[in-house]
Amino acid sequence: MNLSTLQASSQNLSRLDLGIQARVVLRAENVWKSYEDGAIEVLQGVDFEVTEGEAVALCGPSGCGKSTLLHLFGGLDLSDRGRVSVNGIEVNRHRNLLRLLRHEVGFVFQLHNLIPDLTLAENCLLPTVAAGVDHHIAQARLRELTERTGLTRRLDQRIQKLSGGERQRTALCRALMNRPKILLADEPTGSLDEHTSGVVFDLLLDLVATEGVTLVMATHDRSLAGRCDRLLEMHDGRVHEPVSA
Amino acid sequence: MIFLKLIATNLRRHRIRSFISVAGIAFSVAAMLTVVTILQGAVGMFSSILSSNSEIIVFERNVSDLFFSNVPASAAEQIAGWPMVAHADPVLFGVVSSADHPIITCFGVTAADARIRKATWVAGERLTFAQHDDDVVLGQRAAEFLGAKLNDHVPIGHGVFHVIGILKTANGFEDGGVFMPLSSAQSFFHKEGTSSVITIKLRNKDDAAAFKTMVRETFPNLIALEDAEFTRSYSQFRILKATAWAVGGCGLLLGGLGVANTMIMSVFTRIREIAILRVNGFSHLQIATMIFGESAVVSLLGAMLGLVTGTCFLFALKLVPALHGYVDVTIQPVVLLIVILLALLTGVAGALYPAAYAMQIRAVEALRFE
Fold first, then answer.
1. A245 within some domain
2. What is the tens place of the pLDDT at every residue in B110-151?
3. Is residue A129 part of a domain?
């Protein structure tokens, strides 16, 4: 953990120690979600909150609903029942889901989900194009993020020419381009080898801390999960906390 | 810029398929341009035959084709005597065939007709016209394909005629036609005492309305129309133009189906990519714009290629000796504009379903695709 991460973590600790009420940015209340006309009940009354600036890890076996919960928070899917709120606004009733995707949340997936025919820079700039961000501002942000992730020299490279770690770092940059307040990471290091996985995760925590971003990460890797502020367990369609942290 | 690159990238990714779509539109545009231009040229030529040194045409009311129009000679004589009329030339149209040429247009005209008076006589003397019943004057191209020279006797239809002159004219129908004395034509086509039309030249063009009224009142069975009016309203011309646009439209429809096929395949093969764009904040409208942008690029490229191909084809047709004078390669700006607009509309129409499909892609499901 580097200096900036330590500083950010200490700020969180100080806030908690002082008894300051942290703002809840993500909230799930009795959320149900099933697939195949109810045959597969994935979420069965999930209750769960994440406060501003927290780094939360969701652990659990495959198919337990970790990704589904992230998709609900990001507005990519809708719950069958219950309330999912982002910054106090219910996602199911979010008047502008586009605003949610463009400015409030960023996604990082296990598979980087980059567009192979575009360059690293172009992939990173996609959210700014979608949101209509000024070109100069977008370029400055791109430089800032790629410098911090060590990708400056690879800006004009096509995705096919990047390593797995570089691709995932690119995906991380892309997710943070529009300065979202929440980062939803679905197995962000799941497709990487152990060493690269560690490097990318360090970077992820560093960026999250310094940017003041709330992180919710689904992962199988308990050693990585243990480095988050909170570790939650998912099984039987529910979130159980805290098992250990 | 990235948006444009996405469009270009998608087209470049499937080069062959994109090329086939562009070629489909190009051939459609070329076909439409060629057919419309040729038929409009033909209409223009036929109009110019009628309007040769005249501004009004008189013919039988309610006939669908001038070949079936019968205007009595007495009407021509009476009209010629009206003070406002500079001259009135009765013309009888007929069609005959020879051994190798199924259609030869015949013009039964008087010696005073502008076609005879103002044409360039390549062979023969103008003053000899209409002195004998079996005399004919050939257009230069007609003389070529009939293999006839001055003073030859040539079989035309069911008769044999004496060639007393050869005319050079820019009009394909006239250049490939046969000019007979009016009385000979009336006899040959069994239309004694009639002509198909009377072409009128007025002393003062401003008298056109008064002249038309006089014709309507004096000859209830006849109608007088100014040249432009005739070209607009003559049913044969309208049918020809409608046919040209319909044929061209069918071509474009096929081209549009090609674009639709390309765009559908394009969308189906990158469902995951569209989902990525959605996750990154692209709206339905932005996704649809991208799809329409691709089809617009295909259509525009196709239209440009088609215009070049069509123009080259028209010039090539003009060089074919058998078509000399029949093909007018003057492309009217309005035709050009309509063809480009239709190509664009076709492209947009072809992208409607793919765009609608792309807009309905659910990112969360699409991202599960490998």
1. no
2. 888 887 887 888 888 888 888 888 899 999 888 888 888 999
3. yes
Of B277, B283, B364, the CB nearest to A126: B277
Q: What confidence category does residue A8 fall into, taking pLDDT thresholds of 50, 70 and 90?
A: very low
- The answer to whether A130 contacts B5, with C-beta atoms less than 8 Å apart, is no
CA distance A117 to chain B (A): 7
Give the 3-state secondary structure of residue B37: helix
Give one word for B49, left, alpha or beta, with left for phi > 0 and alpha for psi -120 to 50. alpha
In a domain, A12, yes or no: yes
CA distance B175 to B166: 9
Integer Cα distance of A129 and B5 in angstroms: 12
Show the CA angle centred on residue A71, arms to residues A66 and A73, nearest 5°: 100
Q: How close, in Å, is residue B282 to chain A by CA atoms?
A: 5
Q: Provide the pairing of β-strand A55-59 with A40-51.
A: unpaired
Q: Which residues from A are below 8 Å from B6, CB to CB?
A: 115, 118
The overall average pLDDT reported for chain B is 85
If one counts every other C-beta atom within 10 angstroms of the C-beta of residue A188, the result is 29
Query: Where do the H-state alpha helices sit in B189-283?
Result: 208-218, 227-233, 235-268, 271-279
Tokens representing B231? Answer: 């070209």
Residue B309 · residue B27 · CB < 8 Å = yes
Residues from chain B contacting residue A117 (CB–CB below 8 Å): 9, 12-13
Which tens digits make up the pLDDT trace of A65-74? 898 999 999 8
Give dist(CA B247, CA B39) in Å, integer: 11
Distance CA A228, CA A231 (A): 7
CATH of the domain at A35: 3.40.50.300
For residue A126, give the nearest of B2, B9, B272 by CB distance. B2
Which residue range(s) make up the domain with A50?
3-240
Number of domains in chain A: 1
Min CA distance, B256 vs chain A (Å)?
A: 27
pTM of the model: 0.72
Which residue out of A78, A113, A173 would a mutagenesis test of the B interface target, given it has the greatest number of B Cβ atoms within 10 Å? A113
Cα distances (angstroms) measured from residue A12 to each of A5, A16, B201: 11, 6, 100
Helix, strand, coil fractions of chain A, as percent rounded to 5: 40, 25, 35
ipTM here: 0.85
